[in-house]
Known about the structure:
Layout: E1 8-11, H1 20-33, H2 41-47, H3 52-63, H4 69-83, H5 93-102, E2 107-111, H6 115-121, H7 126-130, E3 134-137, H8 152-159, E4 170-174, H9 177-185, E5 189-192, E6 208-209
Parallel strand pairs: 1-2, 1-4, 2-3, 4-5, 5-6
Helix pairs in contact: 1-4, 3-4
The structure holds pseudouridine-5'-monophosphate and magnesium ion (MG).
Amino acid sequence: MTFRKVSHVLFDMDGLILNSEVLYTAAIQNILSRYGKEYTFELKQKLMGLQSHESAKVLISTHNLPLSVEEMIEESKKQFAVLFPNSQLMPGAKNLIEHFHKHNVPMALATSSSKESYELKITHHKELFDLFKYKTLGSSDPEVKRGKPYPDVFLVAASRFPDKPKPEQCLVFEDAVNGVKAAKAAGMQVVMVPDPRIEKSATAEATLVLSSLVDFKPELFGLPPFTS
Length: 228
Ligand SMILES: O=c1[nH]cc([C@@H]2O[C@H](COP(=O)(O)O)[C@@H](O)[C@H]2O)c(=O)[nH]1
Ligand SMILES: [Mg+2]
């Protein structure tokens, strides 16, 4: 397969740069356990990439929880405050982000996370996240109308580069099925590093599927190669 040359890169955050998906699972399971419910991976997959109010709504309706969306968000925030500062980097993420920075590849963060959650998650990774000059935090950004799988967050993130790249000039890095759908809907190529539990058939829309960011070869997309 041949890939199109790109000039700009867009990174998802949760489950791609940080292992925060593990922490979402723990946080949401802690809440559901009060009602004797289980947070299955099947349900989690539907929620990955949604904005916080969208996700809360689906959780409540799926499990018939006696909570309003606001209450669910409040309960989640209590869990996140404890868990998210433990976020750790996924293999290869730091190296790749530093590589793009070193070679002046325009780079943006495009996550559905809220500003509040973002700050908790980057507690121990501030220097690395400072390398992103442009950040779009979907759940807190009024310009991002809809969460993934809609393309909004990627289109808004791309529009914030001063040179306004076209979608085909942008390469997205994602871990989630909803994120891949969002990138494709935006007209962008997408490298997927999926959770191993995701069925192979659900990864088919991705331009390239890798088991780790460590395996990414920038030159496949016309980007500066790793030299050593
Ligand atoms: O187990 C879950 N993971 C992730 C999400 C949602 O996905 C967003 C992260 O999306 P992204 O991968 O675009 O950062 C979170 O902010 C949250 O709203 C969720 O609800 N449940
Ligand atoms: Mg993700």
